[in-house]
Design a protein that fits this description.
It contains 3 helices and 7 strands; from the N terminus they run ααββαβββββ. It is α+β, with helices and mostly antiparallel strands and 133 residues long.
Length: 133
């Protein structure tokens, strides 16, 4: 006789909350100055649009972003204001402000997440644009 699913622990967070928490953890890698953890959130075949000069693949993205992790303080931070999930439940979207260490809002980010077969979410596309002050 098979055991029923563990009903005490519940089904876990809904996909929308999983994506929100993934984005928050991704942003926390900048604050903690942890480039290796940052890399762990990026899909192997991800594309960062990078102002029309695409960075293709995790290795290229991490090499480019290394400059933002070099100092003792994070040059900027970000947090999701909008989080959405596609109807199929395998794609997520986050958007929100990027804030300079001075506290000034400099741009907005737009990130597409993909649910992984083994669980968790990885960034597959990322973009951002400066905001007018």
């Amino acid at each position: 006789m098979s055991r029923p699913a563990d009903r005490c622990s519940g089904p876990g967070p809904e996909p929308l909350e999983q994506v929100r928490q993934s984005e928050l953890a991704f942003a926390a890698t900048m604050a903690s100055r942890d480039l290796n953890a940052f890399a762990g959130f990026i899909a192997e075949d991800a594309v960062f649009i990078n102002g029309g000069q695409p960075l293709r693949g995790r290795a290229v993205i991490v090499q480019y972003w290394e400059r933002f992790f070099s100092g003792p303080e994070a040059p900027f931070s970000w947090k999701p204001e909008i989080v959405e999930i596609a109807a199929g439940g395998t794609l997520g979207y986050t958007e929100g402000p990027v804030t300079l260490s001075s506290g000034e809002s400099s741009s907005r980010f737009y990130t597409t997440w993909q649910r992984q077969p083994q669980g968790g979410w990885l960034v597959v596309f990322d973009n951002g644009y400066r905001v007018c002050q």
